[in-house]
Amino acid sequence: MSFIDSLNEVQKEAVVNTEGPVMIIAGAGSGKTRVLTYRIAHLMGKGVDPFNILSLTFTNKAAREMRDRIEKVVGTDARNLWMGTFHSVFARILRSEADKLGYPSNFTIYDSEDTKSLIRQILKENNLDDKTYKPSMVYSRISAAKNRLISWKEYINSPIIQAEDAENMRPELGRLYKLYSERCFKSGAMDFDDLLYNTSLLFKNHTDVLNKYQNRFKYVMVDEFQDTNLCQYYITKKLAAQNRNICVVGDDAQSIYAFRGADIQNILNFEKDYPELKVFKLEQNYRSTKVIVSAANDVISKNKAQLKKDVWTANDDGNLIELLKANSDNEEGKLVASSIFEGKMSFQLRNKDIAVLYRTNSQSRSIEEALRRMNIKYRIVGGMSFYQRKEIKDLIAYLRFTINHQDEEAFRRIINYPKRGIGDSSVAKILVHADEQGAPIWDILCNIQAVMPGRAAVPIEDFTNVIKAFKITVDNKDAFDSVTEIAKGSGILKELYEDKTVEGLSRYENVQALLNAVKEFVDTPDREDKTLGAFLQEISLLTDADNEKDKDDDKVTLMTIHSSKGLEFKHVYVVGLEEDLFPSQMMLSSREDLEEERRLFYVAVTRAEKHLTFSYATSRYRFGRLKSCEPSRFLTEFDPRYLKLSKKMLEPETPEPVSYVRTNTTTAKNLIQPQPKPKTSYVAPADFKPSDTSVLQQGMKVEHPKFGFGLVKKMDVSGNDRKATIEFDGLGEKTLILSFAKLRIHEQ
DNA sequence: GCAGACTCACTTTTT
DNA sequence: GTGAGTCTGC
């Protein structure tokens, strides 16, 4: 097999050792995907039926790339491989085995928005305060439990968990977990975690089913193994228990999904579960320059939890890492944009060789603006996905409800949209009846006269009839015809068409775009299942694929570091390198996990092939307020000799007085030439030293650098903010958020 | 039942 | 700066 000859010694070993448990520790840029591809090709070359090979990844992107590359090596045989994300493969298995769990095979998949909305609904019905039980927090508790294979019964019966919840003043979490699970079950719906958790139940409680899949999947491969949670690990272990041909590939240094329940211990302890394990370490980096590899190694070496390995490269030293310093987030955008502009000239780069990586999606805004101003084309990966938009979700809710009449979330979304005269009280009545009688919503709807006789029932009967008609179409026609009819018949298309505002127009276009997507779906050659059900199944697990279309265009890529995993670019910009932002304040305070942030930084740095630029701003808008920022500690964690200060930073800087509020931003030019202060800004007098406001109380006299003296009228707390209402002399009352306002306490 | 006004939380990452 | 949820008056 000639393709193997192009590999180095370790890579070869990792490819040909196909029998028994194998762990491949693949450093960044070490040709991991190549090894995986060749390994599968090698298996098939040995005569293994692709039908018997299961390959699991985390993202759709990774799955697609793998399939493409295998197809290039082995041709169309690759089609029969079982390859996909954990969620999509297990969803497929669950669909065919749903009856064993009491689910309908056309079960709906709830995304996080549906999940939170259902939790909110349950909270309301049970008179629980959604401040103590924040939906997002309840969700993550439930999610974490499922990821750790804890059922609601076990949750409620565990004295440890109960004590913990009681201590946190949230004793109802177990009950919420129970109610939520029952509600999902009744709605014929599974959330993302259920796709994994229910698969684990399926394999645990139905040995015949497990045996069937164990026999089918003679070879199991798991990519990005460092990101698996206990539930995923449990399932793969079960699947591979008979043949023991399990191959996991990962890099502990790139484990960045602990927040989602990923357990780095899975990779660190894998050897304990498989004493006969063969371990291969791919340590040669083919991607990056020596400077980049060394800086990355420096940083990651600060972490304690890691497997020993020595990533090295035979590549050139390369350029030094450039550091840009800006005064504000907008200025950072401008510096990055002009650096991209210059870099393209001097290094002969195309836009698509360049990526800008950030910690949070919200940081894309300032970069986007600057790029647009300089006419540099860009694309954004991630953020709000197409399928998350309201108009799309509305239409999809119709599709979902047509297919699965039990789907309560879809029902609530569409029952009175577009407006058809069914008010909240009617909806509440239906839900209460469904609950009291333990009957599905659909049954109540079909006998609505029994619940509310008279006029109020008429629009509901109309609604039921419309859905019934949709159902007939869906059963007889393909996805495209079904969606077209539902878009029209539901009135959504008309509603949006009549909205002539700019947003309305773009919503209408989005619905058209969805129609196009369905068209494309049914037109795909070799697609066996062209039904609406198949389409829904596909899109409910889709998040980042919507950018597929312009993938080949020459555009600069903007994305979060998380979504950059697995990619590489000639020139990478890592922006927003500020303490509290990256490493993230939230991560540090909530989980005290600096190491994961450091791994995230490692991932960002190792995306770069030739050029790497860091940037940070000394002040930035966050939470709608301007905050001053310190450079990130990560900038100090590698040898400073790798760093080159940007030209712009060497120019004399305008000494900027400490300003506490500024609604205007400085342009890049301001760095060099002093500008008159923007009207909206004010500067604290040099001698103004703010006091500690934690002792602030009603009745105290304070001084504000701009508003002068005032009297504290009221103190209150809303959300995370402590606020003080102060009456300033001659200015009247103002409410200030204490974490931002600088006050000097004068007397009590 | 509905529209517009209003309030408030939320900005960590993804399937 | 935004979007979703709630309140209020017709």
As an assembly, this protein is single chain
Q: Count the helices. How many?
A: 31
Q: What shape does the CA trace take?
A: globular
The proportion of residues forming helix, as a percent range, comes to: 40-55%
Order of neighbouring strands in the sheet with most strands: 13-14-12-15-16-11-19
Radius of gyration using CA atoms only: 29 Å
In terms of structural class, how would the helical and strand content be classed?
alpha/beta
- Regions with little confidence, pLDDT below 50 for 5+ residues: 649-688
Whole-number average pLDDT? Answer: 82
Major sheet size, sense and barrel closure = 7 strands, parallel
State the total count of DSSP E strands: 26
Q: What share of residues are in beta strands?
A: 15-25%
Q: Termini separation (Å)?
A: 85 Å
Structure characterization notes:
The structure is a single chain. This protein is an alpha/beta fold and 748 residues long. Helix content is 44%, strand content 16%. The strands form seven sheets. Strands 13-14-12-15-16-11-19 form a seven-stranded parallel β-sheet. The chain has a six-stranded parallel β-sheet with strand order 3-2-6-7-1-8, sandwiched between helices. Strands 25-24-23-22-26 form a five-stranded antiparallel β-sheet, with no helix packed on it. A hairpin with a 2-residue loop joins strand 17 (619-622) and strand 18 (625-628). It is globular and about 80 Å long. The N and C termini lie far apart (85 Å). Mean pLDDT is 82; it is low at 649-688. The protein binds a DNA duplex (15 and 10 nucleotides) through helix 4, helix 10, helix 20, helix 28 and helix 29.
